[in-house]
Amino acid sequence: MFIVILAAVLAACGGSDVDVSDVPELPPVTGDEMMAILAASEQPVVLNVWASWCIPCRSEAPLLERAADQFAGEVTFIGVNVRDGQSGAREFIAEFFPDAPIDHYLDRPGDVPIALGGNTGVPLTFFYAPHGELVQLHSGVIDERTLALQIDEILARTG
């Protein structure tokens, strides 16, 4: 039974036929560069750290896509892909975030979440007030209620 489940998971994760032609290469980013981006933001920021091979990241992606659409213009959404290559990252974006207003970056070594005060696990979701003040860090898959409460909190800090 385990082998059947493992085969199904591996088949779902490999050999993707997703068209990535509309997904530009992700700009590489370091921890210092990401901190500068956050500090310069006039809006609150939801920063999600993900990887294409991460099953929990796949499960929370539709929720993040809907939130990015709903709060476009009020909250900046940033995705940081870690420990991945361009092809895996671009396929994930094409599949889960094809039209979402999310700025994506590539952190191949996985240093950005550590620089921001997180850990090496994925997914991670950071919530920032304008100008880069960390309000909350959520480790693991985020649910709709937690995402809504944290967005309300960072919006309340917009002044």
Description of the molecule:
- By secondary structure, this protein is α/β, with parallel strands linked by helices.
- The chain has a single domain, classed as Glutaredoxin.
- Helices cover 42% and strands 20% of the residues.
- The chain has helices at 2-13, 31-40, 55-70, 86-96, 112-115, 144-156; strands at 45-50, 76-82, 102-107, 124-129, 133-139.
- The longest helix has 16 residues, at 55-70.
- The protein starts with a helix and ends with a helix.
Layout of secondary structure:
Blueprint: H1 2-13, H2 31-40, E1 45-50, H3 55-70, E2 76-82, H4 86-96, E3 102-107, H5 112-115, E4 124-129, E5 133-139, H6 144-156
Features:
20% strand; alpha/beta; globular; 6 helices; 159 residues; Glutaredoxin
Brief sketch in words of this structure:
By secondary structure, the protein is α/β, with parallel strands linked by helices.
